[in-house]
Amino acid sequence: MPVKGIVDSDLQPGINNAKKRTNHLLLIAIDNYQNGFPKLNNCKRDALLFKDTLLGFYQFLPENCIEIFDENATEKNILKTFDILYDRLTTDDNLVIYFSGHGEFHKSAKRGYWIPVDAEPGERSGYMNNVEVRDFIENISAQHVFAIVDSCFSGALFRSGISQEELAAQRQENLPSRWLLTAGRIEPVSDGSLGQNSPFATSLITFLRAAEMQYLWASDICTHVTRTVSFNSEQTPKGEPLPVSAHQGGQFIFRKKAFFEKVEIIPERPIEVTPVIKSSTPERRAAGSLEDWKIYTKELVAEAMDRAFIKLNEDFNRASSKYNDLILLRGRFNGLQANQMRGVVSESQGNLQMNQIRYALLDLIDSMEERDLRQMPV
Questions:
Q1: What is the DSSP string of 226-263?
Q2: Residue 82: CB partners within 8 Å, gap ≥ 6?
Q3: What per-residue string of b and e applies to 39-50 under the rule 16 or more CB within 10 Å gives b?
Q4: Which residues are CB-contacts of 297 (< 8 A; sequence separation ≥ 6)?
Q5: HSE on the CB side for 35, CA within 13 Å?
Q6: Which residue has the higher pLDDT, 79 or 5?
Q7: What is the number of other CB atoms lying within 10 angstroms of the CB of residue 112?
Q8: Which value, to the nearest 10 degrees, does the dihedral of the CA atoms of residues 17, 54, 219, 22 take?
Q9: DSSP 249-306
């Protein structure tokens, strides 16, 4: 029985008939742990915002989304869902997996784990072994699998008439792939403050919503999230293909819908409390007046845009309403660089778009007030 849904085209070279594939989404998010693990603030919130982003902007439909949240996120239910997807998905399907919750790394066993909702601290028999997760990613029959894991120690999973842009996307889609993006390496990661999104989810979702490219590659997402989260926190995401035989060099391509409703980029953040795990970075900014800072930063924009974005990330007050504007511009900048590297934009188009980003960034700097920056040094 055919699966109903919005599909993407994967053309074989020289053939005009499109092979239809359906995008599926599996969301697993746990805030309310039951047996001693600290409760988290934003896992379900992050997952739902990620889902809304894919449904609103990309070729995903609600009937192809599975949610496993809080009390339902037992190891038994997760594995049962894996089995359902093993039976349901074929090479006519793509799959995105999103997990947000606690993770743990056992040093002696050198093994990482997802922590289900009913697991007990110190009882590894109730944890979900990364081997099970990797086996699922590797062996499921989907054409493309992209797993996104926002948990502590998630990096342990890495162990063991067509436009040029369309043609490049097709070449990637024709080859099976297994990609993984994790919120950190073998390290704790931040859940964010209550009422906010985690740093990892903020970077991921903002980039997905702000991207102007018609075709967004998994590698683009990995590159952006790795850079921005590393700049803004003490965790280091990792995103790359899994070293498994099922990965044959392709990529999951997120294709934009023909239209989408206008939605806010990041929800309101009215509550500020200490997060469960909070990374702290020193506040760094050259001494001087606000005007001195603007002059120096605008000179940096003219000299090296990438360095200017790094400095602005360091100096910006995260509570400022203008911070989202900076993230959006950084997303446009990273997207343009990716397209230039792939050769899908001409030199003149690239220069025009880069100048538009530069002028928008200069306008943002001009509009900034002291409250938009971290505390001015005396």
A1: HHHHHHHSS---EEEE-SSTT--S---EEEBPS-----
A2: 132, 136, 140
A3: ebbbbbbbbebb
A4: 308, 311, 312, 315, 365
A5: 13
A6: 79
A7: 28
A8: -30
A9: S---EEEBPS------SS---------SS---------SS-HHHHHHHHHHHHHH-HH
For 26-60, the pLDDT digits (tens) are 999 999 998 888 888 889 999 999 999 999 989 99
* Chain segment 122-148, per-residue pLDDT in tens: 888 888 888 888 889 989 999 999 999
Strand 238-241 relative to strand 177-182: parallel, antiparallel, unpaired? antiparallel
pTM beyond 0.85: the answer is: no
Cα gap 300→128, rounded to integer Å:
47
Q: State both tokens at 248.
A: 């044959």
Structure tokens at 193: 């403050």
Distances in Å between the alpha carbon of 358 and those of 333, 339, 351, 354, 355?
9, 17, 10, 6, 5
| Tens digits of residue pLDDT in 327-354 | 778 878 877 877 777 676 777 777 778 8
C-alpha 217/C-alpha 241 separation (Å) is 12
